[in-house]
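Page 47, continued from p. 46.
Same chain as before, 61 aa.
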Amino acid sequence: MYVFSWFLSMIVALVATGTILYALPGSAAEELSIATAPQAIFAADASRAQAMVLSCAGDGK
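Result:
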């Protein structure tokens, strides 16, 4: 029973380690692209909001 418990805990530890390694970025460029993704989304939303405001403002006559 102790051997089975030890073997099962080793399998769980290896799966956890594999999950952590899979979640880590592979390179510095990948890490930077992940970090700048929210900024790019915010910039797109900001430009869309600006276009909506300008479309409501009219041409100023």
